[in-house]
UniProtKB/TrEMBL annotation:
Provenance organism: Chroogloeocystis siderophila 5.2 s.c.1
Assigned GO CC terms: cytoplasm
Pfam entry (one): ADH_N
PANTHER family, alphabetized: ALCOHOL DEHYDROGENASE 1-RELATED, VACUOLAR PROTEIN SORTING-ASSOCIATED PROTEIN 11
Cofactor annotation: Zn(2+)
Protein name: alcohol dehydrogenase
Length: 330
């Protein structure tokens, strides 16, 4: 099978021919149709996340059809369409797994990081961590739901009932979550990099009540903000934008250092927190909600072998919505 391989962080991916993997008793073999590209993939390829298995097939927003099932798999059969998210394995017995916080499992393994992922024609995945894909979604539109959607949703949940909600960085996750926010009657304020008028226009088209540079303060204090961009300087910026008691959620897995800031912008019970990974419950909830809204994803398509171009486009901020690799089978 064809696959894109990371040999050395900091170097481009390489096209390779690998044997089709064989599922173990708890795994399914998936014939991949699409794989979303996530900013986390960039952090892995660029070497900012330092624990990848190498060589590695990246990609953790996989949509495909089950081609084979391991002998202990009961929940899926050959021909089912499934999605594979970032959380690929947990231990089921550490204190986090036992208390409903499997996203924090001490022994978690992640798809496209410690487990080969979806920049390939086939992959194997633990069936217990796969989700059925809602029927309403074509493969390509479903792919970004699996991380931008799922982990974005976990970050969104952490904002409680915030009525005025700020999004710092208006990429794949924000363009999904704004649709849920509007469906739930909330107002979204979009913050983009300075001069990104295309991104701001995109946010307004999707219903943002206000869109401007992240250097600006919103017209009114926000109840909460989610920082999707991997830029530590946005933490004090967002703290200045939220009202008393407001929460600032850092949604990314990697962020540049947070500059020091005066205590008074945290004072009055403002909260800064991060969100890590996802639980399967987040996935089930979000994939139930998405077709109800219904959430539409705007996808920028690249063939599998052009994965490096897709990563470059994401790195330079050229993607409105989500980038998705189309996996064609000869
Ligand atoms: Zn565990
Ligand atoms: Zn991701």
């Amino acid at each position: 099978m064809r696959a894109m391989i990371l040999d050395t962080p900091g170097k481009p991916l390489r096209v390779a021919n690998l044997p089709i993997p064989t599922p173990n008793p708890q795994q399914v073999l998936i014939r991949i149709r699409a794989c979303g590209i996530c900013r986390t993939d960039l952090h892995i390829v660029d070497g900012e996340l330092t624990q990848p298995k190498l060589p590695l097939v990246p990609g953790h927003q996989i949509v495909g059809i089950i081609a084979e099932v391991g002998e202990q798999v009961e929940q899926f059969k050959v021909g089912d369409r499934v999605g594979v998210p970032w959380l690929g394995h947990t231990c089921h017995h550490c204190r986090y797994c036992l208390s409903g916080k499997e996203n924090l499992c001490d022994y978690a393994q992640f798809t496209g990081y410690q487990i080969d992922g979806g920049y390939a024609e086939y992959t194997v995945a633990d069936a217990r961590f796969c989700f059925p894909i809602p029927a309403d979604y074509p493969d390509l539109q479903a792919a970004p739901l699996l991380c931008a959607g799922l982990i974005g949703y976990r970050a969104y949940r952490m904002t409680g009932n915030a009525q005025k909600l700020g999004f710092y960085g208006f990429g794949a996750a924000a363009h999904i979550l704004i649709q849920l926010a509007r469906y739930q009657g909330r107002e979204v304020y979009a913050f983009t990099r300075e001069g990104d008028s295309k991104g701001q226009e995109f946010a307004r088209q999707l219903g943002a009540v206000w869109a401007s540079s992240s250097e600006e303060l919103p017209p009114e204090p926000l109840d909460a903000a989610i920082i999707f961009a991997p830029i530590g300087a946005l933490v004090p910026a967002a703290l200045r934008a939220v009202a008393k008691g407001g929460v600032v959620v850092c949604a990314g897995i990697h962020m540049s250092d947070i500059p020091s800031f005066p205590y008074h912008i945290l004072w009055e019970e403002r909260v800064v927190r991060s969100v890590a990974n996802l639980t399967r419950r987040d996935g089930e909830e979000f994939l139930t909600l998405a077709p109800q809204v219904p959430i539409h994803t705007e996808v920028n398509l690249f063939p599998l072998v052009k994965a490096n171009d897709a990563l470059d486009a994401l790195r330079s901020g050229k993607i409105n919505g989500a980038a998705v690799l189309v996996v064609a089978h000869d």
